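Weekly structure sync, notes
Attendees: PL (lead), two postdocs, one rotation student
Agenda item 3: pending single-chain targets
PL asked that the sequence for the first pending target be pasted directly into the notes so everyone works from the same version. It is reproduced below exactly as submitted, 341 residues in total.
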Amino acid sequence: MMHRRYALAKHFTFSTVSKKIFFLSKLLGIAVIAIYSFSSNRAGAMSDLVFLSSIVILVFAWDALLHRMITIPIEHISETAQHMADLDFSKVCRVHSRDEFHTLAENLNRMAKNLQNTLSQRKELTDTLSHELKTPLGIIRAYAEGLRDSTNQEKQRAYTEVIIEETEKMAGMINSLLELSAWEAGAISLKKQHFDFVELVETVAGRELMVLPSDSIHITYELPDTPIFVEADMDRMEQVLHNLISNAKKFVNAGGNIHLTLRPEKDKLYFSVYNDAPHLSNEELTAVWQKFHRDKSERNKHGSGLGLAICAQILSRQGADYGARNKDKGVEFYFRLPLLH
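Predicted structure, written out during the meeting:
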């Protein structure tokens, strides 16, 4: 009933330009008839003068209304479009009517904002690549020059290994950065799959923790005995688990503990990976999810600082909340994924 009333009210409102012109043209016709009837009661030249004067006033009024309803909005929209054509997205198109011109202006403003964001992301990508690739390119050049000038086979072999290592690092960084940029631009779509998350955790953890930095590191689990099914992109969630567990493995203290937890919490599935490690500051607990934030220690010399940023994009797109926090002796990374209903 309410929907019918809303549709009926919308039908009889001046919500479109065509309706406004239609009703105004009818009013103009009625006004002409009324003026003619009024002027016909006058005698002689007075009748003609009243009629002509009234028609002139109506014409100017009609022209003013059309100028306000159509010309002014089109001029604003055209001016904004010209600024966009010149790659100036600071101009905001303001049309205060509630018709097609207002909708067009809003769409134009939204397009300008999206284009500005896209160009900013492209510039940021270019600047970041230039900055991040400067060091490995410098290393490659230095060792390539050393390789050219050296006749010692041992040195040549060592220099070659360094060049290959830095090249692989650059390739991995570029691929990760391109993937992250695609996530930020919304160019990657997710596949909804129905799968057992417990089995996925066991598979990824078994593969990641098979080889540890030290035999003295302890691994503990807290996993359900029964399957728990979710609806998410399994490949992307496997990527998240891989990054979180490998991150814990990389930074765990010698002789420390790595603990995995998976349990249902109301309508969420809670997962966390804990490792004994130095505490992070409050700023770092948030910054670790940002791109190119990485630990400068020797343990992370090959890190790109993009893994956790990609995790953040994947988890956000799948409706999961995530974070990091300090525990008694270490740091815990966690997320909550919506359960399948």
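Discussion points:
- The first helix runs from residue 2 to 11.
- DSSP finds nine helices and seven strands in the chain.
Action: rotation student to compare against the earlier draft before next sync.
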